[in-house]
Description:
The protein has helices at residues 6-9, 54-72, 85-99, 114-118, 158-174, 196-204; strands at residues 25-28, 31-34, 42-47, 75-81, 107-109, 133-138, 144-150, 188-189, 210-212, 215-218. The protein is of the alpha+beta class. The strands form three sheets. A five-stranded mixed sheet has the order 5-4-3-6-7, with helices on one face. It has a three-stranded antiparallel sheet with strand order 8-10-9, with no helix packed on it. α2 packs parallel to α5 (158-174). The termini are far apart. The site of benzoic acid has 8 residues, from α2.
Amino acid sequence: MDQPTVAAAFLPSPPRIGEPAPAFEVETTQGTLRLDDYAGSWLVFFSHPADFTPVCTTEFLAFANLSPAFKENGCELLALSTDSVYAHIAWVRAIEATFGARITFPIVADASGEVARAYGMLMPRESATEAVRAVFVIDDRQVVRAVLYYPMTTGRSVEEILRLVRALRTTDRHGVATPAGWLPGDKVIVSPPRTVEMAEERVKAGDPDCRDWYFHLKSPG
Ligand code: BEZ
């Protein structure tokens, strides 16, 4: 096994679930933006390797298509790559000309890689300069709630990212967990009981959605 390179050794550890999102002030296609500008709103902050590349273009089309749904769920979108703001402008114009889709979310021009490094979006064994496909779901208190990483060659499911935001918001609203593949309208998971007595009470109540003392579904709300 090779040793990590010097560059890799100096990368800060990426923010983890439950940690505050690293602050930033960045140049974007919609002017200067700071993390604080998103306080009180949810944010999906995602990186892509490079403008004018086919997989990234398909992802941008998918984000553009679901952008109203993210908004309906109180969530903003913010993209990032290490390309310049001029490249971003040219690319969003090309996407609109070729595919008829308007990119309404801002794109960070992180040419120095400073923000990408702070968020753990650079993986030197994949590329020294281009970001991998990272996704940070940041809540309205600017805490990191979910982190996804995909390699350069695999486009992400934007529907899954939207599902993740909806699931996290449902968890916050109702104090519940969500099962595999959960979608809005599906039943949610009630927290398991913490004592033997509570477990017995739960089973005795005879709710058909309580399949066992630790496995209790219910409708949200
Ligand atoms: C793409 O978006 O098509 C892509 C970008 C970097 C590496 C491989 C594919």
